[in-house]
Amino acid sequence: MKIKRRMAKQLVTICSDATVLDAVHLLHKHGIRHLPVVDDGKFIGFIAGSDIKQILLLPNGNEMQLAEFMNKKPLTVGPEESMEDAARIMYSNRIGGLPVVEDGRLVGIITVGDILAEFIEIMGGLQASSRIDVIMPDNHDDYEKVTRLIKHKGGDILSVGMSDANGRHNKYYFFRLKKCNITPITDALREKGYDVVAATV
């Protein structure tokens, strides 16, 4: 999914000659944690609320101009890049938000909250659903057999997650389905020898 689908487009910005106190007022007024710094329509820096808190501890910190301590070379992403790219950058650098820049202009901001909302939507967490967790061999044939069986027994798969299970050759699969009666599905899976470790409606 492209970043432009989730990024915030109604942006609060600040200019580089504004003071720390100006920034604090904007952050509190709009309930935000990041401020892009824009001069004459050009994106020139980024400041996080956590950075501002540190500056406030300095003598006369509230009077300092943002140009003195803003991040002038922040990490950025483009609107056509993927949400996965943004997630990797934020995770690797332990940051909570990224400016979205196109041709030197700020066009949006993407945050950890946006990434989480996208993940929840992809996993079907925003609609009523059922879930079946199965441990099975890590091969394509078994995966195909299980998904066919789920569909044959009336299950409509919304998403599938996977993680390592005990044993080198096994995987833990999480099947999220449209809300349904899962008993016929779990019974059929167990009859075929698959280890159903959890099932929730």
- What Rg do the Cα atoms give? 24 Å
- CATH-assigned homologous superfamily of the largest domain: CBS-domain
In helices, the fraction of residues equals 25-40%
The count of β-strands is 8
State the CATH architecture of the largest domain. Answer: Roll
CATH topology of the largest domain: CBS-domain
Cα separation of the termini: 28 Å
Report the top-level CATH class of the largest domain: Alpha Beta
Number of helices: 6
Strand order of the largest sheet: 6-7-5-8
Please state the structural category. alpha+beta
Q: Summarize model confidence as the mean pLDDT.
A: 90
Largest sheet: 4 strands, antiparallel
Low-pLDDT residue intervals, each spanning 5 or more residues: none
Q: What is the domain tally?
A: 2
Q: Helix and strand string, N-terminal first?
A: HEEHHEEHEHEEHE
Globally, the shape reads: elongated
Strand residue content: 25-35%
What does this structure look like?
By secondary structure, this protein is an alpha+beta fold. The chain has 2 domains: 3-119, CBS-domain, CATH 3.10.580.10; 126-200, ACT domain (Alpha-Beta Plaits), CATH 3.30.70.260. The chain is built from 6 helices and 8 strands; from the N terminus they run αββααββαβαββαβ. It has a 4-stranded antiparallel beta sheet, covered by helices on one side. Helix 1 packs across helix 2 (49-56). The longest helix is centred in the C-terminal third of the chain and has 13 residues, at 140-152.
